[in-house]
Specification:
globular; 356 residues; mainly alpha
């Protein structure tokens, strides 16, 4: 099963979480002092962790049965690299243009400094990329690179290889402070990779005979426990404050069981994905890359209106406008930029790698 509609809807929830998380910063900066968005929405930042788990799950799901085939490594890399780079480059050059005209509008958290070369190629760096949210793409690309190598071997080796990879990262983080290492080694040993591995392990499990023991009833219970106990505990203990093994172990495992539960429910046709969330999932990459620019533009307009300090009406209106603008542009950018690129990529992949 290559098309998981519930997982696509979950991707939509993940990107909305990230949007809400960054909306909190915009509200704090431009609202005039009063705040509408509650503090627990800080959990939205874990949308990136959910993206990583989903990515690992999807990569294994779409490549099962293709391990060891001729040209499979190149086919996979072509699909992944053309999925990431061309659309990203559009927002990179757009941000560069803004940076050249109004440098104080870009990368304020880093003193308005940026390494353009490493940002363009999404290479490891001790600075955030110019498109700040693209830091997660560097971790994605590292996982894709190693996973493409695994595609060259027999599929039976995938499980032990993933487990060995996870053990290496866990041991490394137990003995060294990864943040103190060189940029490239830091990405290679970063605990975030464990979230990709967790997602990949879920995909292996869901395709096995053992997954039948994980029933739809258990799946519903897991989702309920995650929402009522898991995420509140993550918030209460401030698990997301650091990028360490504790964060990955907690939130990665939590989201791993969530992906497993939703995949089980979809396989057994016990639950169907809302169409709106599927739609958001479809445009999630464009939304992810563009939402900071859109939010910042709305925020600056909000600040110009001299917002009332003791009224939440303007906060509510601004938040609704921000969400509507992010989704509206996400749809437009997906239709005009991302989707045409994907169509060309798919045609070329079919011609070059699948007809050999």
């Amino acid at each position: 099963m290559n098309k998981w509609l519930l997982i696509q809807a979950l991707r939509g929830i993940a990107v909305l979480g990230v949007v809400v998380f960054h909306s909190m910063s915009i509200e704090k900066k431009y609202s005039g002092g009063d705040l509408l968005l509650p503090d627990f929405l800080l959990l939205g930042q874990s949308g990136v962790d959910l993206f990583f788990v989903i990515s690992g799950f999807v990569m294994v799901s779409v490549t099962m049965g293709r391990f060891g085939r001729n040209n499979e490594m190149m086919r996979f890399l072509w699909g992944r690299l053309t999925r990431i780079y061309p659309t990203y480059w559009f927002y990179f050059f757009l941000t560069v243009a803004i940076f050249l005209i109004k440098p104080n509008w870009v990368n304020s958290s880093q003193g308005h400094q940026a390494e353009l070369f490493s940002s363009f190629l999404l290479l490891p760096s001790h600075q955030l990329p110019l498109v700040m949210v693209a830091w997660s793409l560097i971790h994605e690309l590292w996982f894709y690179l190693i996973f493409s190598v695994l595609l060259e071997f027999n599929e039976r080796l995938l499980l032990p290889a993933l487990l060995l990879w996870g053990v290496i990262i866990t041991i490394a983080n137990a003995f060294v402070t990864v943040a103190d290492l060189s940029a490239g080694v830091r990405i290679a040993l970063h605990p975030y990779t464990l979230e990709f591995i967790i997602g990949a392990l879920v995909a292996i499990f869901i395709s096995s005979e053992h997954s039948k023991k994980f029933s739809s009833r258990i799946s519903f219970m897991v989702v309920i426990v995650m929402l009522t106990v898991g995420l509140p505990l993550v918030y209460a203990f401030d698990v997301l404050k650091d990028e360490n093994i504790m964060r990955v172990s907690a939130i990665g495992t939590l989201y791993g069981f969530l992906v497993l539960s939703l995949a089980t429910l979809e396989r057994e046709k016990k639950f169907f994905a809302p169409r709106f969330l599927q739609f958001i999932g479809d445009i999630s990459y464009t939304v992810y890359l563009s939402h900071v620019l859109v939010l910042s533009a709305i925020g600056k307009l909000w600040g110009m209106t001299n917002p009332a300090q003791n009224s939440l009406f303007d906060n509510m209106l601004a938040c609704l406008i921000m969400l509507a603008a992010v989704v509206s542009y996400g749809w437009l950018g997906y239709r005009l930029i991302e989707l045409p690129i994907l169509r060309v990529s798919h045609r070329l992949r079919t011609r070059w790698f699948e007809n050999c």
